[in-house]
Amino acid sequence: METKKFLSGFIAVIGRPNVGKSTLINHIIKEKVTIVSDKAQTTRNRILCIHTDENSQMIFLDTPGIHKPKHKLGEFMDDAAYQSLKDIEAVLFLVAGTDKKGPGDMFISEKLKNCTVPVFLLINKIDLLTKEQVLQAIMSYRELYPFAQIIPISAKRGENVDVVLDELKQILPEGPKYFPDDMITDQPERLLVAEIVREKLLLVMNEEIPHAIAVYVEEMKTRSKNKVYIRTNIYVERNSQKRIVIGKNGSILKEVGALARQDIETLLGSSVYLDIWVKIKADWRNKVAALRELGYTKE
């Protein structure tokens, strides 16, 4: 009896900021490995997310949204997105069906012109559209690039996501199992914890300040039976931002801490004591040394 071939490969997920890339990845992996927010440019690093089943392993590269950089952090984020287009088997180009085709989409399609692998266009957020609006979006975007397939999806509800996976299996080559069956991301626990805290800041705060925020886990260790102590630093660029992040009588930090602790305990499978500090690191988004210290640049 012939053994069924095992398929594997790397798939880049690209698109403008805030089109639902992280939501799609989390649905595929069925775990929360990348943070989600309605604010643009939430993802800052390129994150490997691994989906394994009986016959295949797909390694998705969740990338920062491609945008015009305004600082060195933005340059790093764009570089991380473009680097994901190397040594891959396919590209998932995500657009939001609720948005009109814009210069950002055309900019990305230009970057794809030298791409030699299949590019799938995923029109996201169809749960917010009528059938006629979905068809209009397909007609509008199809002229951008010779896409292998155009698939309307709802990353939030999971609609047609199984279709995307089936299409990817059609083009994946035979290959090895790169990661163990139970591994869903290449990110260390400390980084996942820091990202959870940052996600809660994005959720709680309505200011533009969250984009001037970095989160770094300074210490993480088990202090007593099934109790993990985590000391986390939130870095801002100015003293005025520090006051806003802390909130009146520490109200913002308390809310962020309570929300983050729930997700971190689920991630680690143990109770957590979360110690959060807010510190000033002036203009850190434009300083290479600070970006390196916070894990945003290559060594």
UniProtKB/TrEMBL annotation:
Domain KH type-2 residue range list: 205-282
Subcellular location: Cytoplasm; Cell membrane
Region G5, annotated ranges: 153-155
Pfam families membership: KH_2, MMR_HSR1
Main location class: cytoplasm
Stored InterPro entries: G_ERA_dom, GTP-bd, GTPase_Era-like, KH_dom-like_a/b, KH_dom_type_2, KH_sf_prok-type, P-loop_NTPase, Small_GTP-bd
Region G1, annotated ranges: 15-22
Stored CDD domains: Era, KH-II_Era
Record keywords, A-Z: Cell membrane, Cytoplasm, GTP-binding, Membrane, Nucleotide-binding, Ribosome biogenesis, RNA-binding, rRNA-binding
UniProt GO BP: ribosomal small subunit assembly
UniProt superkingdom: Bacteria
Location of region: G2: 41-45
Membrane topology: Peripheral membrane protein
Segments of this protein annotated with the region G4: 124-127
A Gene Ontology term for the protein's cellular component: plasma membrane
Domain Era-type G: 7-174
A GO term for molecular function: small ribosomal subunit rRNA binding
Function: An essential GTPase that binds both GDP and GTP, with rapid nucleotide exchange. Plays a role in 16S rRNA processing and 30S ribosomal subunit biogenesis and possibly also in cell cycle regulation and energy metabolism.
NCBIfam families per record: era (TIGR00436), PRK00089.1 (NF000908), small_GTP (TIGR00231)
Subunit structure: Monomer.
Family named by the database record: Belongs to the TRAFAC class TrmE-Era-EngA-EngB-Septin-like GTPase superfamily. Era GTPase family.
Name of the molecule in the record: GTPase Era
Gene giving rise to this polypeptide: era
